[in-house]
């Protein structure tokens, strides 16, 4: 468990325990009748209680910068967790990265000779298509666009050139299998690098868990593809 997760868990546990302790102490001292009963402290659920005005939200800074505090009204996205610039960049880059992997995987059913290649392609479609939906929702919940003006997604590690994609489209049988494994392995290695980088500098807990899942699952798939070539 990371230090940040430990601190969050401790805070939640304390928040749940304090009301119970207060109730036990109150009940133990409540033996002198209503006249001496202490007045109950107002809570957030008491009708007519004023909303707190001094609450702040701690927002992690960009890499190398300190955290800052924000008023609740300045934090966009209901229920969204704090995130930083690298979280946003990761999501915006991983969406087109996943999209090309899906493009490659959809070629396999009609072209692959090895059932293992077709199985890997099916697995990629089953996992990465929903993951694109998750990432788009993450951006939408924070009022962010998926577009990055002026960025050439083809420069990302693992992204295949248009010429390589044409070669894969034209290949059939064993030739397709070998080319698919080579290209998808390179593609997965790029995604693993992106995910590993995010785990170093990202702030959003949901994205950290997602990045860890991407790195783990795609490492396993690389091993399976190499077994296919070796066999």
UniProtKB/TrEMBL annotation:
- PANTHER family to which the protein is assigned, alphabetical: SLL0788 PROTEIN
UniProt keywords (A-Z) are: Signal
Low complexity composition bias: residue spans: 33-53
Indicate the segments forming the DUF305 domain, all copies. 87-229
Tell whether Signal is among the UniProt keywords.
yes
Region Disordered: start and end of each range?
Answer: 33-80
Q: Where is the signal peptide?
A: 1-27
Q: Which Pfam families match?
A: DUF305 (PF03713)
Q: What is this protein called?
A: DUF305 domain-containing protein
């Amino acid at each position: 468990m990371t230090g940040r997760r430990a601190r969050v868990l401790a805070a939640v546990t304390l928040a749940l325990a304090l009301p119970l302790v207060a109730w036990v102490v109150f009940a133990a001292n409540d033996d002198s009748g209503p006249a001496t009963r202490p007045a109950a402290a107002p809570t957030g659920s008491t009708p007519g209680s004023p909303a707190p005005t001094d609450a702040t939200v701690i927002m992690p800074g960009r890499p190398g910068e300190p955290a800052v505090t924000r008023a609740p009204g300045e934090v966009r996205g209901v229920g969204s967790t704090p995130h930083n610039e690298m979280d946003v960049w990761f999501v915006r880059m991983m969406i087109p990265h996943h999209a090309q992997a899906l493009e490659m995987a959809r070629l396999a059913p009609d072209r692959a000779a090895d059932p293992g290649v077709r199985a890997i392609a099916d697995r990629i479609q089953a996992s990465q298509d929903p993951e694109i939906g998750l990432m788009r929702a993450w951006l939408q919940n924070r009022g962010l666009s998926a577009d990055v003006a002026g960025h050439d997604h083809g420069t990302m590690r693992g992204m295949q050139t248009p010429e390589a994609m044409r070669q894969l489209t034209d290949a059939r049988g064993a030739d397709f299998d070998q080319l698919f494994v080579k290209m998808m392995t390179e593609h997965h290695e790029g995604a693993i690098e992106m995910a590993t980088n995010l785990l170093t500098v990202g702030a959003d807990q949901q994205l950290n868990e997602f990045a860890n899942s991407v790195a783990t699952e795609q490492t396993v798939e690389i091993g399976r593809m190499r077994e296919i070539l070796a066999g």
